[in-house]
Amino acid sequence: MFPPTRMWGVDMDVTDHKVVRGPAGRRGLSLVETAVVLAVAAITAAIAIPALGGMAARSRLAAEVNALAGALALARSQAARHNRVVVICRSEDGTTCAGMGEHWPAWVVFADGDGDRRLGPGETPLHVHRVSPRVRLGYRGFPRSRYLAFEPTGFSHRNGTFTLCGSGPDPERRAVIVNWAGRVRLAQTGPGGRPLACPPAPGAG
Q1: Cα 138 from Cα 175, distance rounded (Å)
Q2: What is the pLDDT of residues 162-172, one digit of tens each?
Q3: 184-188, 189-193, 195-199 — most confident range
Q4: Gap between the Cα atoms of 170 and 36, Å rounded
Q5: pLDDT for 68 beyond 60
Q6: CA-CA distance, 37 to 23, in Å (whole number)?
Q7: Cβ neighbours, 10 Å, residue 172
Q8: Counting CB atoms within 10 angstroms of each CB, which of 14, 101, 149, 187 has the fewest?
Q9: Is residue 126 a part of any domain in this protein?
Q10: What is the rounded (10 degree) CA torsion for 110, 112, 116, 122?
């Protein structure tokens, strides 16, 4: 019978091949240590998840602002290039122009051949866009708020402000402002530095 042999911190009994952990053996986490690790992970997640949500909301809002600015630039350039009136109108279904309303669920850009400021037979949309359901879009212009028309000169002959708001109780807000000459600029406040008022949610009021 051979005495136990010690190798690399493990007591090995060669007679019955049993392995017994010695003082150099590893141990698992205790219950207290596990609870601390889980608590730290929970705190990290609580901080990171809202931050990621805010980043996603800002990204959505920026995408809609860029899409609208691009649509307005397209309408103005098409009007000047082809010597025709081009309209961007409020739409609820993405296929026709809708009547008055503070919320724009979608918009349609088209060449207004008959001058009625509505997409009619024989008038093909140049561009259609549906706004994200998590972004509210409204337009205030004088004297109409359901469309904006660009003349062949590129002028709109009216001032108007498109307001876009994200979701939540205190959402981020952006403005796309069109002046009388048809030029577009982006802003975080309304004309004169006034705070932007979000359009009501669909069905509100």
Answers
A1: 10
A2: 999 998 778 99
A3: 184-188
A4: 35
A5: yes
A6: 25
A7: 18
A8: 14
A9: no
A10: -80
CA 110 to CA 100: how far, in whole Å?
18
What DSSP string describes 159-177? Answer: -EEEEEE-SSSS--EEEEE
Number of domains the chain is built from: 1
Q: Is 19 contained in some domain?
A: no
- Answer whether residue 1 is part of any domain: no
| Cα 175–chain centre separation | 14
Helix (H) or strand (E) holding 58: helix 31-82
Q: How far apart are CA 164 and CA 68, in angstroms?
A: 10
The residue type at 170: D
Q: 3-state SS of the chain: helix, strand, coil percent to 5?
A: 25, 25, 45
Average pLDDT over residues 153-168: 93
Q: Can you tell me which residue has the tokens 């309408």?
A: 75
